[in-house]
Amino acid sequence: MKPTEFVKVNTQFWGEHLKSVSEHLPVSHSRELAGPLLYPRMMVLTETPDWNILELAGVSREYRSLEVRRQKAAGIDEYFGTTAGASAVVALPDESVVKDATIASERGKNALSDSFPATQSLLGNEMVGPSDRLLDFQPGNYAVLDRVLLAQSSGLAVRLRWNFFTIAIHRSEPADRYRDFLQRLVSNSQHLDPIGTFAVPRGEGVEQALKADQFASTYLHGLGKLTTSEFLAKHEDVLLAAYDATRLIVQPSLESADGTVTPDFILEREDGTHVIGDLALPLRETGQKHRRSLDLTAGATRLATYEKYFATAENQAFAKTKYGVDVADPRTTLIVGTQDPAADFPKAAGTTALEVVDYDTLLRLHLAAKSAPRATAVDSGPTSIATMP
To answer: If you ran DSSP here, which 8-state letter would residue 118 be given?
Structure first.
């Protein structure tokens, strides 16, 4: 299938499908749904030499025509930020479908348990292995990730990403067979749980979260108009909920004999630990018209300086006196845009124990924290990959 055909088929199919769902289910079956039905905001279509990739991204409280973004990647492993040739946690042969699951390296799974309590309600079926490579797209035609949480590691670093809906289709597949596959996906899904959507449990916290202006993909935020401090002020509740934190300190000026460092934020968590972070988002520099630029490699370097700062007792004492935080051995996190290149992650990881999280994933964690009581992780047992009938 040519890339132009891939764009045409997806634009028509998903537009018709999601519009039909939005006009029917919330009206005729509102009491039967688990809660508010949420929709994607953007359709990202990626072309590689061997694969076409569709991803539905962003989250919206109502259906709107999907924004379309086209891009290219060197290969499917680059797209998912993995290394070709290494053994993988999950192999995806034939027409594989993974739904409501977590795929993680062992280090990635530990990060979920220790650092992001809200993920416990999202784990679903857990597939965990020792490899840093999560996915192996074996010879076959289709692979589907439907509401799948990926927790990838590279060295000491971890990258967390929630996939709303993703299809990888081999480019040898003709357009008519791809349309048939999409229709089979729709036909095989439960009526009250249509593909390309998800429902969150009802509750006051969820309703308030969904009404907030910031609850949309960062594609559509107008980020270039916001400074770092303005962004953090608007999204404080999202960060506090996602990181299980009770306090946000915006752009602290941390002085030392070696100079001053200014991370974008410090989060004080409920358990007394701290997260030091930067925003690798196209925000406006304070007092300037141009946007800031911070890629993964530069972000990892900056985070390493924050770790170094808090390694000395004198600097810890300064932060406690000035900001009232007793920081020792903090976690470091970099918040990136949803479609920032995953291929940069292994190169940027190095020896720094950073966490890389995209903003759409934070929004999903925010909703999870607002909509469900904290769960205790359990062993879900062996998990198989479904195959389309």
So the answer is: G
